């Protein structure tokens, strides 16, 4: 990396150095630190044949010492820190207070929330045989902390966040940064006195997320989502639509509702006469007196949690064989079937025309109840939307990059996070939690933005905004002048003179996704600018170009790989044109 040093160094206290002030007013060329620059790499490689993860590795953004682990190299670290700054700005504007929690968490907190038995936790014992885990998320720790530090309703509302490393013992880490054992995450937590306040906090953070992705100029899709193991009954996911994504989304063409496959219910197409054959699955409730039988079309994927609103005490931890055994044993011990119930849940695709399986238990007809209007299978493209009952569902694959949850009292209740309200009564606080996978987002941006030449980054997080290059015929002093003129930009000067050709250096810059390549050549003071990624000209740029100042010319369809357009501009207008171009990217 090349640096520019200016100022005065007082070396009087440095042993072995001639005494007296040594003037420093060196150009970037004179002040090159001749340490190795090989961390950025020098080899060209066949981009088309590589996965995005391999491009990140070959371009020296990251290094992977083992499956699921990543070292951040200089280019990757610059991108990560810039993304941090984008997130931090919007979280601060939303009222968030940044902190940094320990990466270690004690077993007792996770036992209180019943999450210690998670197989994806990295668990270990210290020298005194106390149990800990490496945190995959921090609901337990932050709730315990706020419960200790906040005692009054006057301390609320409160929004905290951190950008830190998290850990998950993935059995099969894959996709590089998309699914690793160690990852970077922005996690935020809100604490409120009432449910209404908590929902306002939920909306507030989601608005901050909208601004974050708007700053990044990313076309995110927001989807209704299942809260999963985190908990709560309201959550939204943020996705980048891409064929490589592991998540499946469904979108209605009428009401425009978008939902994750785990959340999306659907109805059969109009005119559907019913499945030919049904299969069923047995469940039992928590008091073991009610057997739940779900009937659904053979070959479809059952989604039993869709019945939770109607049967909230269903026990999904008991498998089918055990559920049947428990119900039969209880029935034999009971003096009659009157205390026993059977609830049949029949998917709308199962009709009177459908061949039904035999029931595996005895029953009393007065103790059987039936639901027939609740979809209980995963949606498929082409079916009707359950929300509006009019539109047709289309399917998209996507990469999840953010998730927000309204938690209610999921964590504050077992961890006794309370405050005293205005009536001097102790009350449990309401919570929300909000995550952005920072390393995952970097991978997703790289994946969705790559082309046949290499990576393309939103300029706001590109490792550098500009690569400044010169060919063999250019004067060194000319390069000094341009470097000084562009010093206010995030500039990378490729000064590997004589070691690599201009074409080699240009390709490396484009593979790394640097937004602008600026070339100082034989036509100086005319400067050539290559724009790496597609650009939409602003009205300001169009108006300025019409004035025909600075000998400015635009070639909109250059026959150059990895270049959307070229500009030729006089040195006097270079900085202003560069500024306008970056704003358009």
From TrEMBL:
Signal peptide: none annotated. The keyword Protein transport does not apply. PANTHER family: MITOCHONDRIAL RIBOSOME PROTEIN L39/PROLYL-TRNA LIGASE FAMILY MEMBER, PROLINE--TRNA LIGASE. One of its GO terms (molecular function) is ATP binding. It catalyses: tRNA(Pro) + L-proline + ATP = L-prolyl-tRNA(Pro) + AMP + diphosphate. Its EC number is 6.1.1.15. GO terms for biological process: prolyl-tRNA aminoacylation. This is proline--tRNA ligase. It comes from Komagataella pastoris (Yeast). Residues 76-458 form the Aminoacyl-transfer RNA synthetases class-II family profile domain. Keywords: Aminoacyl-tRNA synthetase, ATP-binding, Ligase, Nucleotide-binding, Protein biosynthesis. One of its GO terms (cellular component) is mitochondrion. InterPro entries: aa-tRNA-synt_IIb (IPR002314), aa-tRNA-synth_II (IPR006195), aa-tRNA-synth_II/BPL/LPL (IPR045864), Anticodon-bd_dom_sf (IPR036621), Pro-tRNA-ligase_IIa (IPR002316), Pro-tRNA_synthetase (IPR050062). Pfam families: tRNA-synt_2b. The lineage of its organism: Eukaryota, Fungi, Dikarya, Ascomycota, Saccharomycotina. Belongs to the class-II aminoacyl-tRNA synthetase family. Coiled coil: none annotated.
């Amino acid at each position: 990396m090349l640096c520019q040093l200016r100022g005065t160094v007082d070396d009087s206290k440095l042993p072995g150095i001639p005494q007296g002030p040594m003037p420093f007013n060196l150009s970037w060329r004179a002040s090159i630190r001749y340490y190795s620059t090989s961390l950025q790499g020098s080899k060209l490689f066949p981009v088309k044949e590589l996965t995005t993860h391999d491009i990140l590795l070959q371009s020296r953004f990251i290094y992977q010492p083992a499956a699921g682990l990543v070292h951040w190299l200089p280019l990757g670290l610059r991108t990560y820190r810039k993304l941090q700054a984008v997130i931090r700005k919007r979280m601060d504007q939303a009222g968030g207070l940044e902190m940094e929690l320990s990466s270690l968490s004690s077993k007792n907190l996770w036992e209180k929330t019943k999450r210690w038995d998670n197989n994806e936790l990295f668990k270990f014992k210290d020298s005194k045989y106390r149990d800990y885990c490496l945190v995959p998320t921090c609901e337990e720790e932050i709730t315990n902390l706020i419960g200790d530090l906040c005692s009054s309703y006057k301390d609320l509302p409160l929004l905290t966040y951190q950008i830190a490393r998290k850990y998950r013992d993935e059995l099969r880490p894959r996709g590089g940064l998309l699914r690793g054992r160690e990852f970077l995450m922005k996690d935020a937590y809100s604490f409120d006195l009432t449910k209404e306040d908590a929902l306002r906090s939920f909306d507030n953070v989601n608005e901050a997320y909208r601004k974050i992705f708007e700053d990044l100029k990313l076309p995110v899709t927001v989807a209704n989502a299942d809260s999963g193991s985190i908990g709560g009954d309201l959550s939204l996911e943020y996705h980048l639509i891409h064929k490589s994504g592991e998540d499946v989304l469904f979108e209605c063409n009428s009401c425009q509702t978008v939902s994750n496959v785990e959340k999306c219910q659907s109805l059969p197409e109009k005119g559907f006469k019913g499945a030919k054959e049904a299969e069923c699955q047995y469940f039992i409730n928590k008091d073991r007196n009610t057997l739940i039988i779900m009937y659904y079309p053979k070959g479809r994927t059952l989604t039993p949690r869709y019945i939770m609103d109607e049967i909230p005490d269903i026990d999904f931890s008991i498998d089918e064989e055990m559920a049947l055994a428990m119900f039969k044993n209880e029935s034999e011990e009971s003096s009659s079937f009157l205390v026993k119930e059977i609830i049949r849940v029949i998917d709308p695709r199962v009709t009177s025309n459908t061949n039904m399986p035999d029931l595996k238990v005895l029953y009393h007809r007065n103790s059987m109840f039936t639901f027939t209007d609740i979809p209980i299978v995963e949606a498929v493209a082409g079916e009707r939307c359950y929300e509006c009952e009019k539109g047709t569902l289309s399917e998209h694959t996507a990469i999840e990059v953010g998730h927000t949850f309204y938690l209610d009292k999921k964590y504050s209740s077992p961890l006794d996070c309370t405050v005293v309200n205005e009536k001097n009564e102790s009350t449990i606080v309401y919570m929300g939690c909000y995550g952005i996978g920072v390393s995952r987002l970097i991978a997703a941006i790289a994946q969705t933005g790559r082309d046949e030449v290499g990576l393309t980054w939103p300029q706001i997080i590109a490792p550098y905004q500009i690569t400044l290059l010169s060919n063999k015929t250019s004067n060194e002093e000319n390069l000094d002048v341009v470097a000084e003129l562009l010093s206010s930009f995030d500039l990378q000067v490729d000064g590997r003179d004589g070691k690599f050709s201009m074409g080699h250096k240009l390709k490396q810059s484009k593979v790394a996704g640097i937004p602008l390549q600026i070339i100082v050549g034989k036509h100086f003071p005319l400067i050539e600018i290559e724009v790496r990624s597609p650009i939409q000209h602003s009205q300001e740029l169009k108006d300025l170009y019409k004035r025909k100042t600075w000998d400015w010319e635009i070639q909109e369809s250059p026959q150059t790989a990895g270049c959307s357009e070229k500009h030729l501009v006089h040195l006097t207008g270079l900085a202003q044109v560069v500024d306008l171009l970056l704003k358009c990217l």
